[in-house]
Automatic annotation (TrEMBL):
This protein's name: LysR family transcriptional regulator
Keywords noted in UniProt: DNA-binding, Transcription, Transcription regulation
Keyword Transcription found: yes
Gene3D superfamilies recorded: Winged helix-like DNA-binding domain superfamily/Winged helix DNA-binding domain
UniProt domain HTH lysR-type: residue ranges: 10-61
Length: 292
């Protein structure tokens, strides 16, 4: 038979302090019959009576007096454990996220997480840094860039510019030098897309349609990439949500389906699972993912 040692000791200590089973049960915030059952079970487990029940008061036996200090220590340790557990639940879970995530979307994610007693803090970082932050324990979890077919979340990419394109899609081959008679138009990549599974595909397409190498350029930051587009005919590789935030006109790429993929990684598998499942929809909104 499994004995609740902590519950039994808590009832034992409360009754000894109050001097009666009724008052001790009230002190322990349990019904009197429950207190009596727990103490009886503890006595059977220990093999001796803790209280002399021949008088109206709950008087400790010599065995009970000897065991009381140890019972108090056990109850104190249990209360400290419960206190530490409450503090641990309130400790923020730091998550490394792409710098493409907007403040409002992150705030909504944090609010939704609080309903699950999860307190989130965010650290924006480049794709290559986020998994490393988990490894060095600077964050508990991260949203990492993966090929789209491997991702828990998928973010379709297209090209965005200042002027609205006439067609429903933008073909990269229309940017070939001399086609429009003006300066060579560029496609700017932001750091979030300067990863092999995105960058290499757009570079292969660049070469296949005959663009000059410099017509697809990686910028040091999203700000720099967007600055290359404003005031020019250049285009930014981005998601539809990013284009809307920047006030740019977005269209899919005609020759290729290109997308970012994301997955969650964490030191504890349960943290990654929570981001994918219970918080998956809110995470997807932050990323600009489809199906959210």
């Amino acid at each position: 038979m499994v004995v609740d040692l902590v519950g039994g000791c808590r009832a034992f200590v409360s009754v000894s302090e109050a001097g009666s089973f009724t008052a001790g049960a009230a002190l322990a915030r349990i019904p009197q019959p429950v207190a009596s059952r727990r103490i009886a079970a503890l006595e059977r487990h220990l093999g001796e009576r803790l209280f002399d029940r021949s008088s109206r008061r709950a008087t400790l036996t010599p065995f009970g007096r000897d065991l009381l200090p140890s019972a108090k220590r056990l109850v104190g340790l249990a209360e400290a454990l419960e206190h530490d557990a409450r503090r641990a639940r309130l400790r923020p879970m730091r998550v490394a996220v792409p710098d493409t995530c907007g403040v409002r979307d992150l705030a909504e994610l944090a609010a939704e997480a609080r309903e699950l007693d999860v307190h989130l803090e965010f650290r924006a970082a480049a794709p290559g840094e986020r998994a490393e932050l988990v490894r060095t324990q600077e964050v508990r979890a991260a949203l990492v860039a993966v090929p789209a077919e491997e991702g828990a979340w998928t973010v379709p990419l297209g090209l965005a510019g200042v002027a609205a394109p006439r067609a429903k899609v933008v073909h990269l081959e229309t940017l070939r030098a001399g086609r429009a008679g003006g300066p060579r138009r560029r496609v700017w990549l932001q750091p979030e897309d300067d990863v092999p599974h995105v960058r290499d595909r757009i570079l292969r397409l660049r070469d296949a349609v005959g663009l000059q190498p410099a017509q697809v350029s990686a910028a040091d930051s999203l700000t720099s990439a967007a600055a290359g587009v404003f005031g020019s005919a250049d285009l930014l590789l981005c998601s539809a949500a990013q284009a809307a935030d920047l006030g740019l006109q977005w269209r899919p790429i005609g020759e290729i389906d290109l997308a970012r993929g994301y997955d969650a990684t964490a030191a504890l598998g349960a943290d990654a699972d929570r981001l994918r499942t219970a918080l998956g929809e809110a995470v997807g909104r932050c990323l600009g993912a489809t199906g959210t």
